[in-house]
Amino acid sequence: xxxxxxxxxxxxxxxxxxxxxxxxxxxxxxxxxxxxxxxxxxxxxxxxxxxxxxxxxxxxxxxxxxxxxxxxxxxxxxxxxxxxxxxxxxxxxxxxxxxxxxxxxxxxxxxxxxxxxxxxxxxxxxxxxxxxxxxxxxxxxxxxxxxxxxxxxxxxxxxxxxxxxxxxxxxxxxxxxxxxxxxxxxxxxxxxxxxxxxxxxxxxxxxxxxxxxxxxxxxxxxxxxxxxxxxxxxxxxxxxxxxxxxxxxxxxxxxxxxxxxxxxxxxxxxxxxxxxxxxxxxxxxxxxxxxxxxxxxxxxxxxxxxxxxxxxxxxxxxxxxxxxxxxxxxxxxxxxxxxxxxxxxxxxxxxxxxxxxxxxxxxxxxxxxxxxxxxxxxxxxxxxxxxxxxxxxxxxxxxxxxxxxxxxxxxxxxxxxxxxxxxxxxxxxxxxxxxxxxxxxxxxxxxxxxxxxxxxxxxxxxxxxxxxxxxxxxxxxxxxxxxxxxxxxxxxxxxxxxxxxxxxxxxxxxxxxxxxxxxxxxxxxxxxxxxxxxxxxxxxxxxxxxxxxxxxxxxxxxxxxxxxxxxxxxxxxxxxxxxxxxxxxxxxxxxxxxxxxxxxxxxxxxxxxxxxxxxxxxxxxxxxxxxxxxxxxxxxxxxxxxxxxxxxxxxxxxxxxxxxxxxxxxxxxxxxxxxxxxxxxxxxxxxxxxxxxxxxxxxxxxxxxxxxxxxxxxxxxxxxxxxxxxxxxxxxxxxxxxxxxxxxxxxxxxxxx
Length: 753
Description:
By secondary structure, the chain is α/β, with parallel strands linked by helices. The protein starts with a helix and ends in a 33-residue tail after the last helix.
């Protein structure tokens, strides 16, 4: 033993000298994985478990370098170092936008980045995302140092012939560490690793490298399952819809049944407009006066949530139209557009409606030329062929010019058709929002009056507040979008196009504004022009639940002809509830809808909004499946409606400064939105484990059924009849790839001009 201990230092020194590149690779990979967790999930999870998993994975990958001659090993390490660094940076960027992590299944979606690269660089990418590239520099520097200081290093190493010995030793250590890690796992850990829904939990528990390996295996399994798992999905599909009527207990008719039957419908897809914008005032003025007017005069659903995934706008279009969830693997717009879906457009088409869509962007973005055809639109007007690009803001044709050019086209459609359904997709209010600064004169400062002792007068002071911030640019962009909607409504009315017409407006998703922007917004003191920090008594945190609950978007149904009592509906509602709700009003029904007619839910029942990651929302709680926590929302009012200075003084704008009043602004803890208030609402016992379990099962079942419909074209097969004995051998394997869009040769419904 003494001899071993005595020789240990020299052995360790020799090992380090012989494996400098290997150790550089291992250490840099482990550090990057740790940094990624620190930047994203932070320290919400046990740090030992992901470290053990990372060590096992990196050692296992690294040991294969010993299969090469010493001078060739650098190339192997360099390749993996680049891969790991890019994975770390990519996951960091992706988490900023989606609060999740990247997947192999999203490779085909990367084609959409070209159209929004400015948004990625300006709004999403941060300096910290480039830190991960240090590992590449370190590996190159180490290699250059060895070649310069020890020219014969690799030849001497080859003479020692230690590769096999080191490979076996590394394998033994890797397996041992993996074994230790396995003993720490719970049944929940293993289940979530297999399902891959809760990606934040998986990466936080299993580390970056095990997560990416598991994701790759999962995606391959999903592809194989599409080829071999049809029978199982078919049975689940049949069982679900056989039981659906009993499970989803709703009344058949209600006060809104058929109230808009036979009317024209114009739907406005309001890009990135969040609901809190309608509650926002700047210096006492409404940020969105036109939307607010429509909300007051219509049916306004103020607790409405988009259910989009990585397909963002295209996911919302799909869910709005079909009452299905976005695909869990890939996106419908890119990967699964060539299926038969029971959509609003197709059902109204069967009722004699002419259906069309218009957009001020090119038709290929999110594959809309094909997606819209699949959804049942008769024609898609886009800037490539149908609009004059006379004013560009942001990504394409400005909304005001778009609407101005759209109205004559709608007029022509109205003259040629008895009934029509149209969707107008807005564009200007798309991240990164900064281009609006060129054309907007809307001010987002904070004005107040202060006594000037020299003049003896009260003078107006302008605190910068949101000027020069990304949230400020967003508010300016929303105000512009609201002006455009007001202009559209006026032009439609002037042409008589609002008569016998229903206007439907929905926000497609939240604006993806970062937490730090809201932190500044909630904690800015205009009277001192300072921002509170965590150490200040009046500080309001951007709690994860505060952030997610603020992501809701507006949904408005309005008609000049009336036929309803204007009303604000505060019950929680999701995008998948739109089709059943509109269907009840317009006279159609989709038996495959996963959502509900919001007016047919019994008074003693809660609606439930599920999200693609397994989270869900009811009228009682918001449940975060990533962290297995819930937030009590009974009596909760959105923090963005009250916390900021502009909202505090919305009814008393331009106040006259008084130290006794305004000098104490934000000096005391906010009893509704402080960190303590958030903690009091978290896991507070308002529901039990059974409540969570039942609704988690509800979410999981509907996500699985939606995937079955999307992956296997299940509705089309049901309509054709399953009696043909369809099995996995009957399925065109190219058509069901999760890695790339279907082959162009197989697309038999290309959009007709």
